[in-house]
Amino acid sequence: MIWNEKFECMAPAELKQVQSERLKKLAAYVYKNCKVYKDKFDKATVKPDKINSIDDIKRLPFTTKVDMRDNYPYGLFCMDQKDVKEIHVSSGTTGNPTLVGYTKDDLKLWSEVMARCLACAGAEPGDTVQNAYGYGLFTGGLGVHYGGLEMGLRIIPMSSGQTQRQLKIMQDFKPKIITCTPSYALYMAEEAKDMGIDPKNGNWKIGVFGAEPWTEKMRDEIEAVWNMLATDIYGLSEIIGPGVAQECPHKKGLHLFSDVFYPEIIDPDTGESVKEGQDGELVITTLTKQAIPLIRYRTRDLVSINCEKCKCGRTSPRISKIKGRTDDMIVVRGINVFPSQIEHVILGIEGTEPHYQIIVDRQQHHLDEVEVLVEVNSKMFSDEVKKLEELRRKIKKEIETVLSIGVKVTLVEPKTIERSMGKAKRVIDKRQI
Amino acid sequence: MKIKQISIFLENRKGRLYDVCALLGKNDINIRALNVAETEAFGILRIVVNKPDAAVKALKDAGIVAKITDVVAIEVDDRPGGLTDILKVLADEDVNIEYMYGFVEKSSDRALMVFRFDDVDKAVNILKKHSIKIVTEQGVREL
Predict the structure, then answer these.
(1) Segment A182-187 mean pLDDT
(2) In this complex, do A377 and B65 lie within 8 Å of one another by their Cβ atoms?
(3) Which of A381, A385, A415 sits opposite B67 (nearest CB)?
(4) Among A41, A59, A62, B100, which is least packed, fewest CB within 10 Å?
(5) B22-32, pLDDT tens digit by residue?
(6) Which residues in chain B (71-130) have CB-CB distances under 8 A to chain A?
(7) Is residue B106 pLDDT above 80, yes or no?
(8) What is the pLDDT of residues A275-324, one digit of tens each?
(9) What is the dihedral of CA A249, A252, A256, A258, to 10 degrees?
(10) Domains of chain A by start residue, with CATH
C-alpha cells in the first residue's frame, strides 16, 4: 500500500511547488531562530527573502557534521529545549556524540515517514513486526516503533541481541515482518539452524533491513534462508533516523520522501550538482523539521538518483544503495564508527602514540568484528604481564565506551602497522560489502 | 647488588623468539638466564645477558621494544627445601615477588635464580640481613 498517496505520488510540478514553499519558510525560520544558521547565511551573503523556489537552494551554505560537533550540544537548535520532546545521539567524529532532538511535530513527522517506509516495503495494518533494531539512544528501534504504531502494526519491541529469545518469540508469534540489520538477519538464521529450527517456518513476508551497507548477494541469501522479501531502508540520525528512504517490492532503488527531505547529489569535491544517474554525495535538506532543521546536510554517503516514476506508482525520487563514503566512516553492526574516535581514545591514554590500525572483518557467523591493533612503545611497555594486560584492557574498555560496540584490542610490535607515504593505513575492511 | 634484566615485547608470531635470539648472537651477546611470559596475544621475553647495555642498544636499533629492569640474582642451595628457606625469609619480611626464574648455568653446587621484586632495594637489604648470597653484575659476567 501507499501510505501517503498525496505526497508520495504527487505530480512533479506540484511537488516542486510544495518544496519551494517549504524551503522558503524554512530559510526564514532558521535565519530568525538559530544564530549558527544566521551567521552561515550572512557569511554566504544570502538573505532568506532571496529564497523563493526550491532551485534557490543552491545559494544556501552546506551544513556538515563539523557544524554539529562545533555547536554541540544546543547550537543548531531553533527552539527552546522545553519544546524538545526527545533526544537521541549518534557517533561523533571525536569526543562528543552527535545530538539530535525532536519536537512533538518532529516525532509526528518521524512516525509518518516510517509508516511510509513500512507500507512501501509491503506492510499492511494489522501485520505483526518483530523489531530487532536496538531501542535506546540509537534511532533504529524507536523509529520503527513509531512508524509501526502510526500504521497500525502489532509491534514486538525485541530490540537487538538475545538471539535465542528472538527465535523463540518469532516461533510463538509468527510475525510477518522483521526489522534489523541485514547481517543480524543472517546471523539469526544460522543460530536458528544450529538450534534445529528452520527459519522459513513461519508467516514471513517482509524484512526491512538497514543501518549498514549490504550487497545484492546478501539480499539473495536472506531471501532464500528466510523465504521473505528483503528490502533496504535508509536513514541517518541527523536527518530523522530511519525513514528517509525505502525500497518498494520492485527493489529498483529506495524511494526518498522528497516532500520533506529534499535531496541533491553533488560532486563532493566541488559541491556542484552532478547529472541525474551519476554517482555523487547525497545532500539532504529537512524541509519541515522544527528542532534541528538541517540545510543542505552533507551525508557523506555516495549514491546515484533516479527521478523517473516507479512502477509502484510513487513519483518520489529513488536513490541507489549506498555505494561508499566520502569520509573514513565505517559501519559496524549498524553503528557508525569514525577512526578518529578510536584515535582520540588512544591519545588520551598516557604513554600511547597514535599508531593504531582498525581491522574489520565479517566472521562466518555473519557478525562484524573489530580488532584494534595498538603499537607498543617503550613508554607503555612493562616487564610485567599484568601491567601490559591492564593497559590493554583499559584501551579496550575506553574504546568500547565511546563506540558502544565490543572490540578486540591487540598490542603489537612497533612499525608492524603498515605506513604508506608516511601516513598509516588506519582501516582495513576485510568485509566484502 | 642488583643486576640488569632486559625485558622484550614479543608478538605471538612464529619466529619472533628466533629473531631476537639470532640478533643477540650476532652481536656476541650471551644469554645467562631466560624466561618467557606469554598471554593469548603477546609475550614478554626476560633475559639476563653478559653485556646488557650492548644488548639493549642492538635491540632498540632493530626497532624492538626493550627495557632494562632491575632484578636480583640469588644463590639458592641446590637441595630439597633450598628455595623454601629463601621464600620463607621473604614472606616473613613482607617482600612481594612479581616473578622469578632460574639461570641456565649453575655456580658450584648452588642454583642461581632471578627474582623480580616490587621493591628491589628493600628486598636487597633484607636478603643481606639474612646473609643470603646475591650474585653481582660482575659475578654474572664471569659465569
Answers:
(1) 93
(2) yes
(3) A381
(4) A59
(5) 999 999 999 99
(6) 98-99, 116
(7) no
(8) 999 999 999 999 999 999 999 999 999 999 999 999 999 999 999 999 99
(9) -110
(10) 1-326 (3.40.50.12780), 335-429 (3.30.300.30)
The H helix count followed by the E strand count for chain A is 11, 23
- Does the CB of B32 have a partner CB in chain A at under 8 Å? no
Here the cell at position A328 is 573514513
Task: Collect all residues of chain B within an 8 Å Cβ-Cβ radius of residue A382.
Answer: 7
DSSP annotation of A108: H
Residue A376: which of B65, B99, B116 has the nearest Cβ?
B65
- How confident is the model at residue A349, as a pLDDT? 87
For domain B3-69, the CATH class is: alpha beta
Question: What is the sign of the dihedral through the CA atoms of A134, A140, A142 and A147?
Answer: negative
- Residue B37 contacts A where some CB pair is shorter than 8 Å: yes
Residues A247-254, mean pLDDT to the nearest whole number: 98
- Is B1's pLDDT higher than 90? no
Residue type, A51: I
Give yes or no for a contact between A140 and A165, defined as CB atoms under 8 angstroms apart.
no
| Topology at the third CATH level for domain B73-138 | Alpha-Beta Plaits (3.30.70)
CB A283 within 8 A of CB A267: no
Nearest CA in chain B to A412: B11
Q: Any idea which residue has 555505494 for its cell?
A: A323
Q: What is the Cα–Cα distance from A62 to A56, expressed in whole angstroms?
A: 13
> B65: nearest CA in chain A?
A378
Q: Cβ of B9 and A376 within 8 Å?
A: yes
